[in-house]
Structures are given as structure tokens and as C-alpha cells.
Amino acid sequence: MDTKTKLYMVSLGPANWELVTIQALKALQTCGAICIPTKSKDHSFTRSITYKIIKDLMDEYGFSKPIIPVYAPMHFKKKDWQYQVDILEDAIKEQGSVSFVTLGDAAVYSTVYYLLDMIKKQNKKLYKRSEVIAGITSFSYASSRVKKPLCLGDNRFEIIPLVGKDVPSTKVYMRPKVGLNTKHMQEDGTMYTFQNLNFAGEHIQKGKIQKVEKYMTLFIDFLKTKKGKK
User: Fold this and answer.
1) What is the distance between the alpha carbons of residues 153 and 143, in angstroms, rounded to a whole number?
2) Structure pTM?
3) Which strands, in side-by-side order, build the sheet including 130-133?
4) Which residues of the chain fall below pLDDT 50?
5) Half-sphere exposure of 6 toward its Cβ, with a 13 Å CA cutoff?
6) Is residue 54 a contact partner of residue 67, using CB atoms and an 8 Å limit?
7) Whose CA is closest to 145, among 158, 136, 154?
8) What angle do CA 82, 74, 34 make, to 5 degrees?
9) What is the Cα gyration radius of the chain?
10) pLDDT of residue 2
11) Would you state the pLDDT for residue 75?
């Protein structure tokens, strides 16, 4: 695989081109083509907010890229994800580097990780050459609009899907005291420790550290995802 090969999974934020991060913009400007999901069987973008954001960005910053439509029905079926992965792999072969875009943040109710899970199994080299670019979430933006915090002090906030039943969850642990022993922290899924993210001495590891050494320490107990339906 060519060293220039790159698959960017680009989060675009909540439906406004001005809320796209600089990192996301750079990926869009440097890639060979942009893959945009569409729910229209004819591959049109008539009602696509995602497409409008991309067009607004290209107009505002004066760049142009080939646009590849990716039919993405909300079926949550493995065959649909496989179809999208096939398009991405074909685009990579032709363009060298590709951006697949998604609204909001890729980590929150997005197709991105279904696709990456399949790519990891089918094309490990491409998976290693992939990069997920985070975005502003709808709830962070909503909080700013009404000037209300999502959490302060020792409070916490929850993301609850309105599905009418209790469901398992990914848990984020943050704001620890230096010296805290983590033996009381229950691990239900797959735990990761993040220290000094984006600062000097950044450290990321699978599993939890035994004792907190830095205030800027974050633990995420990732929910083990189920396999997609066929």
C-alpha cells in the first residue's frame, strides 16, 4: 500500500460549516476525494445537510474535490456497510487518499465505526492508515446556545437513547484526584486510560492505571459493540 494512502473519517459537527474543526478542514483540503453519504437511492444530494456543509467549505476556502456519493440507508444491516466499505476501498485505489464525512462526531451514533470494524477485518493495512477526526457534538453546541453547562462541580451528564428500555453504556471517568487508587473502578467493557491528551507527555494505554499521577487523566470504559445484522 502506498505511503500516501490515507482514509480520513471526518466529523463535520452540527450542521454548520463554521463549526467544522481546522483539523477536519485540512483533511478535506489535502485528500484526493470526498465520500459523502446519501439516503437517496439515485445518489442525489438534494436534501443532504452533509453535502451542503462540504460545498459551503469549498466555496469559502476556495478548493474543489471530486465528490463520491455513498448510498447509506438507515437499515443497520451488514450488507449496507459492506457496500460502503467497497466504495471506500475503490476510491482509495483511484484517489490515494479519501475523506468519508459524517455529521456531528464520529464517536456518537455514527456509521463510522461499523465501517472501520469491517475494514479492520478485511484490510488491516488500510485500517492502520485510517484516522478519525473528532467533531463538535450536537449536545455540546446545544448547551452553548442556551448558556447552560452539561456538568459542573461533581455532577455528571448522561446520553440516553430514547428506545424505551434500559441499555448498557460506555462510561467516561474524569476529574480524578492525583494519587487516587483506581481499584474501585469497575470495568464492564474495554477500559482505556488517557493522560495529558494533546499535551507534553501524552500517554494512552489499554486498561486502567493503578494510581492517578496527573489531573489531566481520563478513563473510558468502552461498551463492547454487537455484530451488525446480516
Assistant:
1) 16
2) 0.88
3) 67-71, 33-38, 97-102, 6-11, 130-133
4) 228-230
5) 17
6) yes
7) 136
8) 60
9) 19
10) 66
11) 78
